[in-house]
Each structure stands twice: as structure tokens, then as C-alpha cells.
Amino acid sequence: MTLHQQLGWRAANLIYRLNDLRKASLMRGVALFCLMLGSAAAMLVSVQADDPKEGAHEDLVPNGAVCRIRGTKGNKTFGQIRFIQKNGFVHVTGQVRNLTEGEHGFHVHEFGDARAADGSSSGGHFNPDGHEHGGPDSDEHHAGDLGNITANADGIAKVDIKAKGLTVISVVGRAIVVHGGTDDLKSQPSGAAGPRIGVGVIGIAGPGPAKKDAKPKAKAKAKAKLKAAAVKPS
Ligand SMILES: [Cu+2]
Ligand SMILES: [Zn+2]
After folding, report:
1. Could you tell me if 18 and 109 lie in one domain?
2. Vertex 159: Cα angle to 155 and 163 (nearest 5)
């Protein structure tokens, strides 16, 4: 190899190495860019998660709950109850039917489990704070102690209770139990309210059943009439 050739080879080698270096730095640049992009995306996600409107799943905290009460074995009790979260209390409203006239114990029980025919699977009164049984206005009472509902001569009890010890989120998944007798608001552990005649599981309220609209029905009727006329043999 001549000196020129040797120099040329060295120069070529140097250029090649420089090129390699440049490639490496380019790759490093690309890697850095990707890293920045990744962390930017991660930051964006975390910022979104911090935003209560975007990431906190506010929709997971229900504002309202509902309960459809059905009679336990041998009872025809039925009813519908709504729970609306207000500031500092839950407004419990609705109606229970097919009751004997007079007062009936009305409680939130611990488990939303209506499997037992006698309602026993719903457990005891909802009592997260370990209190004694009482009336809703007693100093000491279970959170689920809603007192009594009163049925009129037609066996209908209107429910309108402001439950201070409850939140909607704390009752969802539990049960409403209607008793055959009166809760005396003092006997332990459950006010000697007698058998469980109605039980319902409390669930998150949806938009509610669609309201009956007379117009579509009339339209459907007219359509059916038209169809019948068309099918009639002439
Ligand atoms: Cu009860
Ligand atoms: Zn109780």
C-alpha cells in the first residue's frame, strides 16, 4: 500500500466512523425524542387523571338509588322506593302496598341478598358504626334504622323519610326490609318488628321506565288497521 493509498484508506475509515457516530447520535436523538414523547403522553394522562371531570369516575358515585320490594314467601307486599342524595341526608320516598293497616318496621339491612324465602339472607340492620338499635331520631341507632312506615286502611304506606345517617353510596347493594310488625325503636337488636314480609335489593337508579306516550300507540293502531285492510281479500 502506498502512502497515498494508506492516507486515503485512513480518511475513508475516519469518514465512515464519523458517519457511524452521526448515525449513533441520530439514533440517540430519535430515542430521546421517543422518550420525551412517551413522558409527555404519560404526563398528559396523569394530568387528565388529576382532573376530576375526566378521570375521577364521578359517574361511579350515584346520586340516586332505587329499590323494588317484593313479598317474602306467603306475603304479597310490594313497593318501590327511591333514594336521593341531599346535602347531609338521603331522601327516601316511595310507596309500599298490600300491608296490614298500621305501623311496619322499615330498615336498610346489611346485605342485598334476597335469596332466602323468608328474607333472612339480607342479614341484620345496616350498622357500620356498631351502634345499638333505635329510632331514626334516637341518639343511638343503626344507620339503617328508618323507623316505621304507616299503612292506611287500603294497606298503602307512603314513604317520605329524611335519613341523616345514610349516603346513597353506602346503601347501594344492600336491602330494604319491611316487617310484619311495628319497630318499637328500642328492643335489641332490631326493634322486635316481627317477620320480614318484604325485601328488595337497593340498586343504582337509571333514567327510569319510559313514559307511556299515547301518540305512538295511536299511530301503531292506525298502521295495524291499514295493514288489516290491505290483507282483506276483495
Ligand atoms: Cu328490618
Ligand atoms: Zn336497627
Report:
1. no
2. 150
Within this chain, do residues 42 and 141 fall inside the same structural domain, yes or no?
A: no
Nearest ligand to residue 119 Cα = 1
Question: Does 184 lie in the same domain as 83?
Answer: yes
Provide the pLDDT confidence category of residue 80 given band limits of 50, 70 and 90.
very high
Ligand that comes closest to the CA of residue 187: 2
**Exposure of 77 by Cβ count < 10 A (0-12 exposed, 13-18 middle, 19+ buried)?**
buried
Place of cell 413522558: 39
Catalytic-residue membership of 57:
no
Domain presence at residue 222? no
Catalytic, 107? Answer yes
- For residue 93, what are the domain limits? 61-204
Backbone angles phi, psi at 173, to 5 degrees: 90, 0
Whether 91 is a known active-site residue: answer no
**% of the chain at pLDDT higher than 70:** 67
Q: Assign residue 92 a region (left: φ > 0; alpha: ψ between -120 and 50; beta: otherwise).
A: beta
**Ligand 2 midpoint to CA 112 (Å):** 16
Residue 217 falls inside a structural domain: no
pTM above 0.70, yes or no: no
Please indicate, yes or no, whether residues 150 and 85 belong to a single structural domain of this protein: yes
Residue of 125, 141, 174, 183 with catalytic role: 125
